[in-house]
Amino acid sequence: MCVPHCEKVCVNAKCVKPNQCECFPGYKVFSEVQKYRCVPECGICEHGFCSAPRKCTCFSNYELRAGICQPICNNCENGSCKTFGKCECNVGYEMSIESKCEPHCNNQCSNGRCVAPEICECNKGYELTKNSTCVPVCESGCLNGNCVAPNVCECKMGYKMSSENMCEPICESGCSYGLCVGPNNCTCQAGYKRVSASTCEPMCSPSCQNGNCIAPNECECFSGYRKEKNNTCEPFCKNNCINGVCIAPETCQCFQGFKEVNHYACEAVCTGGCPNGVCIAPNTCECLPGYKLSTENICVPICPEDCLNGYCVASGVCECNPGYALALPNTCEPICERGCLNGVCTRPGYCECHSGYRKLSDRECAPFCESGCPNGKCIAPNICECLQGYNMDNNSCQPVCQNDCTNGVCVAPGTCECDAGYTRSTESVCEPICKEICKNGRCIAPDVCECDIGYRLISPSVCEPVCDDGCKNGHCVSPGNCACDPGYSLTTSGSCVPICKGGCSNGECIAPGECICNKGYTTNDSCVFNCVGNFCELACYCQPVCGNDCTNGKCVAPETCECLLGYYKSAYNVCEPVCDHECQNGKCVAPNTCECNLGYSNTSAYVCEPVCQEDCINGECVLPDTCECYLGYELSSANICDPLCRDGCTHGKCIAPDTCECSTGYKIAKKSNICEPVCEWNCTNGHCAAPNTCECFNGYSKSSQFTCEPVCSKTCLNGRCAAPERCECYEGFQLNASNTCEPVCTTECLNSFCIAPGTCECYEGYSEVSLTECAPICQPGCENGKCVAPDICVCYDGFSEISKNQCEPFCQEECLNGKCVSPNICECFQGFELKENFICQPICEPGFTLSIDIQCIPECNETNCQNGRCLSNGECYCLDGYVRKSNSFCEPICEEDCNDGLCVAPNECECNEGYRKNSNNKQKCDPICDSGCEQGVCFRPGLCKCNSGYQLYDGVCKPICTIDCKYGTCVAPELCECLEGFLKSEEGICEPECSKNCQNGFCKGAELCECLPGYRMLETEGNCVASCVPECINGVCTEPNKCQCLKGYIPANNDSNLCVDETITTTLLTENSTPQQNFLEFECFRTCVNGTCITGICECAQGFKLYEDDIWLYCLPICNYPSGCKNGYCFSPENCQCFEGYSLHPDRPYECVISFNDTHNELFVSRFKLLWTFALISVLLAIIILVVMFYYIRRVSYNVDKKENEFGLVKLSQNADIIRSPNNV
Question: pTM for the full model?
Answer without folding.
Answer: 0.24
